[in-house]
Amino acid sequence: MAALWTSADAIAATGGTSPCDWAANGVSIDTRSLRPGDLFVALKDVRDGHDFVAQALAQGAAAALVSRIPEGVSPEAPLLLVPDVLKGLEALGRAARARTAAKVVGVTGSVGKTSTKEMLRATLTGQGHVHAAEASYNNHWGVPLTLARMPADTDFAIIEIGMNHPGEIAPLARMADLDVAVITTVAPAHLFAFDGLEGIAQEKAAILDGLRPGGIAILPAGLDVSDILLAKATETGARAVTFAATGADWQIDRADWGAEASAVQAITPAGPRLFRVQSPGRHFAVNALAVLASAEALGADPALSAQGLGRWSPPAGRGQRERITTDPVADEGFELIDDAFNANPASMAASLDVLSILRPEDNVGRIRQGRRIAILGDMLELGPTELALHAEIAHHPAFASLAIVHCVGPRMKALHEALPQGRRGEWVETAAELLPRLRALVDAGDIVLVKGSKGIKVSLLVEALRKLGQARPQDDKGTE
């Protein structure tokens, strides 16, 4: 197998220098996940990566990208010396993109970026060599890292692009040099950095600045800000393909919204299209429209794309469903929906919709009546109207089907106070405070949603709920 980066290629890309020849098969920024043969990139973040270069080399790193010779490391060691490590990583990313004939799709949006990226990965797998971002590597170092890891023989690349502040998306999109750009939706998120939804739409639309001439923009229709997205497509010369709303190029005609999966017939420019999403929730089906439209724009086979899409299910932290078996003898337990990675008003509504259509199990456990339970943590970075946005969740129609709602975080106190007395559960300021009482709050037969922004750490509750029993994916029915 050819090396991902030789010292000669890396020097040509970055303009750096190296005292010796080396070849790397991967790129890493973390010694905890570094594999032998990786190029270690000594980024400066919370810690200075230069402090870990000696360790990385001892673990078998092929070389290290540095801006100075670290203390305790020989000048003759395999180092790629550049003036600035992040700019060096960006240069590797641009060079990796330039040397491949891959079709590249960029994904952004207020909600659903990572799920859409993973849907695309599943959809394109088997139709060529697919390269995609790991986890949510979508920021100023995540995008160049994903590009720098891209093998030269890649056929399809999927790049997730996020933002927290204005001006972040366009440079990353230009670096990725996109053939197709997807905007999943525009919703209130990161409002602390923007004047309103229009500002968020303009920033999301900036992904179109990274499209190659003749590129295709996959855009959500029916939003209050859809005109801003379409205007940007016209400005950049992109061909706009719309999805989601009635009248869009790709729209849902009929659907069976099952508790285990969604079967959809879509209206498309090429005629009716049937597909299946192995997860409940209209939002996943709508994102699937964007995925199939993107796959078609990339030249993928429609039938194989639909088959690949049908193999996708939500990953941990983003709506993954698990059965927690609390009594293996009686085969009793509860269902856990792990959506603890991120939250804003739009994704919160989507998760509550999913919870509302799932059916608890009666005649098991202490209570004998299965319940829908939500444990909701703060939605962060919503700006000056954050308390009102939290309180408004109480008006969501899904609450009529919930038995009880527990709230975590200072902002979620606004929702707790807005809930009707009968559904108002516990309120705690931190997730850790709920841990001692967690066992008493759930019972066999229940369906428990845990949702919140990553910073509020409701993932601690997910892990604690798993430890109440034996976890297995919802689609694993066992071998009995």
UniProtKB/TrEMBL annotation:
This protein's pathway: Cell wall biogenesis; peptidoglycan biosynthesis
SUPFAM superfamilies hit by this protein: MurD-like peptide ligases, catalytic domain, MurD-like peptide ligases, peptide-binding domain, MurE/MurF N-terminal domain
Subcellular location: Cytoplasm
GO biological process: cell division; cell wall organization; peptidoglycan biosynthetic process; regulation of cell shape
EC number: 6.3.2.10
Enzyme type, top EC level: ligase
Record field: catalytic activity: D-alanyl-D-alanine + UDP-N-acetyl-alpha-D-muramoyl-L-alanyl-gamma-D-glutamyl-meso-2,6-diaminopimelate + ATP = UDP-N-acetyl-alpha-D-muramoyl-L-alanyl-gamma-D-glutamyl-meso-2,6-diaminopimeloyl-D-alanyl-D-alanine + ADP + phosphate + H(+)
Origin superkingdom: Bacteria
Domain Mur ligase N-terminal catalytic: 25-97
Residue ranges occupied by any Mur ligase C-terminal domain in the UniProt entry: 332-453
Keyword Cell wall biogenesis/degradation annotated: yes
Gene3D superfamilies: Mur ligase, C-terminal domain (3.90.190.20), Mur-like, catalytic domain (3.40.1190.10), MurE/MurF, N-terminal domain (3.40.1390.10)
Annotated signal peptide: none
Bilayer-crossing regions: none
Positions bound to ATP: 109-115
Domain annotation Mur ligase central: ranges: 107-294
Keyword Metal-binding recorded: no
Annotated Gene Ontology cellular component terms: cytoplasm
UniProt GO molecular function: ATP binding; UDP-N-acetylmuramoyl-tripeptide-D-alanyl-D-alanine ligase activity; UDP-N-acetylmuramoylalanyl-D-glutamyl-2,6-diaminopimelate-D-alanyl-D-alanine ligase activity
UniProt record similarity statement: Belongs to the MurCDEF family. MurF subfamily.
HAMAP family: MurF (MF_02019)
Physiological role: Involved in cell wall formation. Catalyzes the final step in the synthesis of UDP-N-acetylmuramoyl-pentapeptide, the precursor of murein.
Protein name per UniProt: UDP-N-acetylmuramoyl-tripeptide--D-alanyl-D-alanine ligase
Lineage of the organism: Bacteria, Pseudomonadati, Pseudomonadota, Alphaproteobacteria, Rhodobacterales
Gene transcribed to yield this protein: murF
